[in-house]
Amino acid sequence: MRSDIDSLMRNRNIDTLIVAGNPGSSTDFLYLTGPVKVTGGYVVKKQGEKPFIVCGLMERDEASKSGLPVKLYSDFNYEKIFGETKNSFEASAKFIFSILSSQRCGRKVALYGNAPIPYTAALLEYLKKNPDFEFVFEGEESVFSAARVTKDENEIALIKEVGRKAQEVYQEVVDYLSSCKEKKGVLYKGRSPVTIGDVKTLIKNFSEELNINIGKEDIIFAQGRDSAVPHSRGESEEVIR
What we know:
Number of strands: 9
Structural class: alpha/beta
Number of helices: 9
Mean pLDDT: 94
Radius of gyration: 22 Å
């Protein structure tokens, strides 16, 4: 449960959690913020305090929909740091130091995100140079994975709600395909043959109407042999037989 995060941090002597990325690239970011539509930033969680989001000015209003406090890059000298520091890895490290120092985040910091390994390795080299902080990268038994083991009543209700909405999406697809006409073994809507891509678009659009955050590339809708291949996304250009 999210309510377990503080006790997990205390047990591990972690002062602050900082998650880089966005809700689409990092499940840990999503876990703290919910499905807010920000393209990038940081979520910072100090032990015993509510998390806050750090993002660009253009995304301030979207980030605020999370219900969490929002701080801007400019609050931490982003332009000055990146303008004066030629190495982007060093600049990123200095920016993280600026956030942690100004917010009195303590010494031991657990860093999360979903960045390429070369980027993470290079960033870590610069993070290690600051003796004021000790950075840790947790493995499978992270604070977040431990917190997710159990669910509170609100989280259970959300899971049930998403399940109900998924059933609605399924039924919408069934109704749509049932309304199509067959011509020589192919489904048509009016004069046009229906493709896998058409159905994926239907799924994505109807999901968004129900406030389900989903990318078209994540949708699995396949036919024939592909339907027997686990996690085959299906071929969008194929007509539906």
